[in-house]
Specification:
- The protein folds into 2 domains: about 240 residues, Thiolase/Chalcone synthase (Peroxisomal Thiolase, Chain A, domain 1); about 150 residues, Thiolase/Chalcone synthase (Peroxisomal Thiolase, Chain A, domain 1).
- The strands form 3 sheets. The protein has a 10-stranded mixed β-sheet, sandwiched between helices. A two-stranded antiparallel ribbon has the order 2-3. A two-stranded antiparallel sheet has the order 11-12.
- It is α/β, with parallel strands linked by helices.
- Strand 9, helix 12 and strand 10 form a beta-alpha-beta unit.
């Protein structure tokens, strides 16, 4: 019999808040975290906006030696994980380190380190490349640092599947606990790719919004005037735990993780399959895995990137699975306020689902002003609503056709 898996700790740092409490309050209030890029000079860039982390004192959190050895994406991972560990009240004496693992995620990894050292090599030659280059840049290093800091000696690796990365990490952690490979797993994702080369690359693809004169209105999922996604940065961490283990130590339980589905479009390197065929299958698998029907789902946290193709096809996928009920269910896109954190997105959005279930409040999709006939569902426009949520699902879709969906349930002992 599969073991039950619950979520006992949450942590995040992102464009709308440097912790879970602030993030949730701002999302419910419809506060956007997108602004003009400050990380580098955007002269010559078509897109000059991003969702940057704000007002966080990294020098107070890390000492100088640590900052020299840690890329920003790892810093974000450690910050949100520390919050989640504290929230879960995990201490050295209430878990077995050998039964505790880390399955973390990053879509890109140490992008800033990669760019800086490439410039260094070009200007100064190979002998000036930092000895920290490789251990700062490789994607798995965030999960390694988390394990080292918290003495988690069990299963440990990362998942990389573009913007579905954290969802696949959460789903794999779910399965690992279900089948007895661990009792606790730190899961989630991190990204710090608001950098000159990464932004230039997405600009070259014409994937980004260029609404530079109205940054707070630039991310507008499902709206007819959407013109691309907005890059952002940050991390989201969840503590997944086997139910009896959590109960034994008296842990607070936010929600139960009950379903997971993963598919591939096998269609195109960037465009979604027509009518969201692949994401529809992932939703169907996750719902079946949870042992429920589509009519049981109360809320969908959409991938909702604000790109013309994603929003149209995700809407079609939801209609495919939910039929007429699709017009009743509440849907919202956190990315309308956070921007798109790429490989970290599903970690932050799983936290949103937990807070939605816990609070009975669904945050809005902001910037819903121009109806799109292709996007005709209830996206919870502009204002939060109160609604008791028993089952929530979160969709994540990545370049290459990677689809991941999880189902969370209000905990019932």
């Amino acid at each position: 019999m599969k073991r039950r898996v619950v979520i006992t700790g949450l942590g995040t740092i992102n464009a709308v808040g440097n912790n879970v409490e602030t993030t949730w309050a701002n999302l419910v209030a419809g506060k956007c975290g997108i602004g003009l890029i400050t990380h580098f000079d955007t002269e010559g860039y078509a897109a000059k906006i991003a969702g940057e982390v704000k007002n966080f004192d990294f020098n107070a959190y890390f000492d100088r030696k640590q900052l020299k050895k840690l890329d920003l994406f790892t810093q974000y991972a450690l910050i949100s994980t520390d919050e989640a560990i504290a929230d879960a009240e995990l201490t050295e004496d209430n878990y077995d380190p050998e039964r505790a693992g880390v399955i973390y995620s990053a879509g890109i990894g140490g992008q800033n380190t990669f760019e800086n050292e490439a410039i260094n090599l070009h200007l100064n030659g190979p002998r000036r490349v930092s000895p920290f280059f490789i251990p700062k840049m490789v994607g798995n290093i965030a999960s390694a640092h988390i394990a080292i800091k918290h003495n988690f000696k069990g299963i440990n690796f990362i998942t990389v599947s573009a913007c579905a990365s954290a969802q696949h990490g959460i789903g794999t952690a779910f399965r690992s606990i279900q089948y007895g490979d661990a009792d606790i797993i730190i899961a989630g994702g991190t990204e710090a790719a608001v950098s000159p080369l990464a932004v230039a690359g997405f600009c070259a693809m014409k994937a980004l919004s260029t609404r530079n004169d109205e940054p707070e209105k630039s991310s507008r999922p499902f709206d007819a005037e959407r013109d691309g996604f907005v890059m952002s940065e940050g991390s989201g961490t969840l503590i997944l735990e086997e139910l009896e283990h959590a109960k034994k130590r008296g842990a607070h339980i936010y929600a139960e993780l009950v379903g997971y589905g993963a598919t591939c479009d096998a269609f195109h390197i960037t465009a979604p399959a027509e009518n969201g065929e692949g994401s529809a299958r992932a939703m169907a698998i996750a719902i079946k895995d949870a042992g429920i029907t589509p009519a049981d789902v109360d809320y969908i946290n959409a991938h909702g990137t604000s790109t013309p193709l994603n929003d149209k096809n995700e809407t079609a996928a939801i209609r495919t699975i939910f039929g007429e009920y699709a017009y009743t269910i509440n849907i919202s896109s956190s990315k309308s306020m956070t921007g798109h954190t790429l490989g970290a997105a599903a970690g932050i959005e799983a936290i949103v689902c937990c807070k939605t279930i816990e609070s009975g409040v669904i945050h809005p999709t902001i910037n819903q002003t121009s109806p799109d006939p292709d996007c005709d569902l209830n996206y919870t426009p502009n204002t939060a609503v109160k609604k008791q949520v028993r089952y929530a699902i979160s969709n994540s879709l990545g370049f290459g056709g990677h689809n991941g969906v999880i189902v969370l349930k209000k905990f019932e002992s």
